[in-house]
Amino acid sequence: MSKMRVYEYAKQNNTSSKDVVTFLKGINVEVSNHMSTISSDVIAKLDNHFKSDNKSQASMKSDKSAEQRSDKTEHKGKKENKGKSNHNSPQQNKKNHQNNNKPNKQQKFQGKKGKKGKGNKPVGNSQPVKKETPKHITYHNKLTVSELAEKLNKEASEIIKKLMFLGVMATKNQDLDDDTIELICAEFDVEVEKEIILEDTDFDKYIEEDKQEDLIERPAVVTIMGHVDHGKTTLLDSIRHTKVTAGEAGGITQHIGAYQVENDGKKITFLDTPGHAAFTSMRSRGAQVTDVAILVVAADDGVMPQTVEAINHAKAAEVPIIVAVNKMDKEGANPDRVMQELTEYELIPEDWGGDTIFVNLSAIKGEGIDELLEMIVLVSEVEELKANPHTTAFGTVIDAQLDKGRGSVATLLVQNGTLHVSDSIVVGNTHGRVRAMVNDLGKRVNNAGPSTPVEITGLNDVPQAGDQFLVFKDEKKARQIGEARQQKQIQENRGEQTKVSLDDLFEQIKQGDMKEINIIIKADVQGSAEALASSLRKIEVEGVNIKIIHTGVGAITESDIILAAASNAIVIGFNVRPDANAKKAAESEKVDVRLHRVIYKAIEEVEAAMKGLLDPEFEEKVIGQAEVRETFKVSKIGTIAGSYVTDGKITRDAGVRLIRNGVVLFEGEIAALKRFKDDVKEVAQNYECGVTIKNFNDIKEGDIIEAFVMEEIERT
Ligand SMILES: Nc1nc2c(ncn2[C@@H]2O[C@H](COP(=O)(O)OP(=O)(O)OP(=O)(O)O)[C@@H](O)[C@H]2O)c(=O)[nH]1
User: Fold this and answer.
1) What is the DSSP string of 200-240?
2) What mean pLDDT do residues 280-290 have?
């Protein structure tokens, strides 16, 4: 059996497209919606699942022997599963069935229980196991059922059976996730280890582990968090003024996103980004920079929503929290209430038997700041924060921007090693040499050790906050890795950039990604463009608006496509075609261009797409173009167009369009295709031919004959 669409399969098998899509996603087959095309091997997998359900005998198998074997195994397994129904409630069975790829915790548990239930009658006992089961296996990336079987020296059917008991229906070519691999291996008492293969662009590949004796104490990196208006900024300012301005003549000249203060000879680094940024954006990029979180709670306001959010962020990052009860100078200040409220979030003061440090302060008056700093030092001592200053520097970008005069300027927090001026460095996807380094006091420095924030210049581009950096001994290596990382990033971005297309419109609407559909209309005459625009605007689909961002007369041009790409729009051509440059641009920019000759069909298509009912089983594919060089009028035959094939080919059975100045004059069929006097099936590029079009004679020199075929589209 060749390919078919999800909805066709669903219809044939009396099930819903949604169930089919859910099942396929469950077995890691990539499908986007009911329109996705599925290949014969996927159909076989579906048959295994849905036909065994229906007990339907209709045969749609393609890959006979292999798949049928696993079919049998599944049926058998299913019976055994049924036999164990006293272990699984009907709901559980249903759940297992629906979710039949990745066992959830409950399913895993059921699986184990199921095994126990079978007592000393192990699965697969009927077959001799030929080779010994290994004690330990390793894998990287992914494993299919049969690959796992091979590693375990088992038959694939044995693994499939085990999977059955875990509530997972699988065929031998199916990929298994890490959890499932672990569970199966546990069933056979085999230790399993996943190898992580580092790519050349991964920093981890170049970072050497520090020797214990090289590690020395480093300053704590502190982030201040809390609800809006509870005094984060005031506290940061207050610490800076009491501690920095006092000691440093000239005061703070620089605001670089982080600063250091000294308390009793010990340094503390504060990230000057109040709020959650240090946690949210940086952690989402895999960077963990904060050692201690200060939770500011206003004594007169108590615990508020963002207080709770802050607690959750700090806990998720496993960072110790010090509570700063602020605004103690205010009349309504009630620190006991704050303590009471925070007990709910497992932040219990030492006085009450917990281990959370609470400091009462007034940021505005500068009271309690010293005590807070002492407590930070105390906590960091407990945490035993250490780093090796004698290695190449590694760390994270705190902030970065493009400065008109200095170019790319980035604030880096050195987390290990020491950063030097003129070091070759890769920062995120950028690279360069450290040209100049400035500390938080605006002083030029030559070195920056662990936990020190410095602003650097010399990068080829602007990195992003949360990016990591690493120094390389060799400048060439740094450039090579920086460029490779940039290339990788470009490729990843390209993959993510999905332009809106009618085929996936419904999916995007459903997911709430699409509230407005931008459309560009090009038509042969202004009247049609307007008529089409006003009809499209009238389409009503709940929660989604149609926005016509441009209408015009004439062929679809490259600039229409560029506008569409920039505004994520669909282009509808009514009686017009894209010119050659527009075609190329549409392909490279992945802009969906829909061509119509009947207004209501264009409207129907957009409406159907918005409702998820789009049914384009076939897509038109232009196979070639010929230019009319001369015309001959022959009575009885009509006009023969002496043409030259400029692109692709013209075939006898193709559909044709006659295009004059980018406007379609006629669409129909070829009556005759000749080379000299002979009828031919096709004429290739750079050859001359004679074409007559059925029921159409108004052909002129310079017209374009476009040949097209209808092809089943393959979109997944
Ligand atoms: N009375 C009193 N007012 C304070 C104290 N700390 C801050 N404030 C005031 O509270 C208000 C908010 O302070 P900010 O420091 O801007 O608060 P924030 O938490 O940084 O606020 P956002 O940046 O908006 O999240 C300002 O009007 C401060 O003057 C304090 O200790 N006592």
Assistant:
1) TT-GGGTPPPPPGGG-EE--EEEEEEESTTSSHHHHHHHHH
2) 64
Cα–ligand 1 centroid distance for 325 (angstroms) = 12
Give the 3-state secondary structure percentages of the chain, helix then strand then coil, rounded to 5: 35, 30, 35
Residue from 227, 228, 234 whose mutation best tests the ligand 1 pocket (most atoms within 8 A of CB): 234
The two tokens of residue 129 are 């196991």
Q: Is pLDDT at 489 greater than 70 in this prediction?
A: yes
Whole-number pLDDT of residue 35: 60
Q: Please check if 624 is assigned to a binding site.
A: no
Terminal CA-CA length for the chain: 18
Distance in angstroms (rounded) separating the CA atoms of residues 410 and 460: 11
Q: Give 448: exposed, middle or buried? Use CB within 10 Å, 0-12, 13-18, 19+.
A: buried
User: Which tokens sit at 274?
Assistant: 């109040």
525-533 own/partner pairs: CB under 8 Å, 24+ apart: 525/553, 526/551, 526/553, 528/574, 528/575, 528/599, 529/553, 529/574, 531/599, 532/572, 532/574, 532/599, 532/602, 532/603
Show the tokens assigned to 66.
Answer: 């292999």
Mean local confidence (pLDDT), 541-554: 81
pLDDT tens-place string over residues 368-413: 999 999 999 999 888 899 999 999 999 999 888 888 788 889 999 9
Residues 6+ apart with CB under 8 A from 464: 285, 397, 400, 428
What does the angle CA 128 – CA 130 – CA 136 come to, to the nearest 5 degrees?
Answer: 120
Neighbours of 187 (CB within 10 A): 20
Is 231 in contact with 320 (CB distance < 8 Å)? no
Q: Cα separation of 207 and 209, whole Å?
A: 7
231: CA distance to ligand 1 center in Å?
3
Helix spans in 188-344 (H): 232-240, 277-284, 305-316, 335-343
Q: How far is ligand 1, taken at its centre, from the CA of residue 232, in Å?
A: 7
Q: In this structure, are residues 701 and 652 in contact, taking their beta carbons and an 8 Å threshold?
A: no
Residue partners of 427: CB distance under 8 A and separation at least 6: 397, 410, 412, 459, 463, 467, 468, 469, 482
Q: Residue 311 is which amino acid? A: I
Query: What would the DSSP string read from start to end of 52-94?
Result: HHHT------SSHHHHHHHHHHHHHHHHHHHHTTTTS-HHHHH
- Per-residue pLDDT tens over the stretch 99-148: 333 333 333 323 333 333 333 333 334 444 757 889 999 888 778 888 99
259 alpha carbon – ligand 1 mean position (Å)? 20
User: Whose CA is closest to atom 9 on ligand 1?
Assistant: 231
541 is in an annotated binding site: no
- Annotated binding residue 233: yes
- Residue 77: other Cβ atoms inside 10 A: 21
Name which residue leads in pLDDT, 198 or 520.
520
Q: Give residue-wise pLDDT tens across range 163-198.
A: 888 777 777 877 888 888 988 998 889 999 888 776
Q: What confidence score (pLDDT) does residue 24 get?
A: 83
Tokens of 51: 């036909």
The two structure tokens encoding residue 382: 């407990």
Using CA atoms, how far apart are residues 298 and 303, in angstroms rounded to an integer?
A: 8
Instruction: Report which secondary-structure segment, H or E, holds 326.
Output: strand 321-326
457 is in an annotated binding site: no
Where is pLDDT greater, at 27 or 702?
702
Tell me which residues have their CB closer than 6 angstroms to ligand 1: 226, 228-234, 274, 326-327, 329-330, 362-364
Confidence of residue 688 (pLDDT cuts 50, 70, 90): very high
ipTM rounded to 2 decimals = 0.98
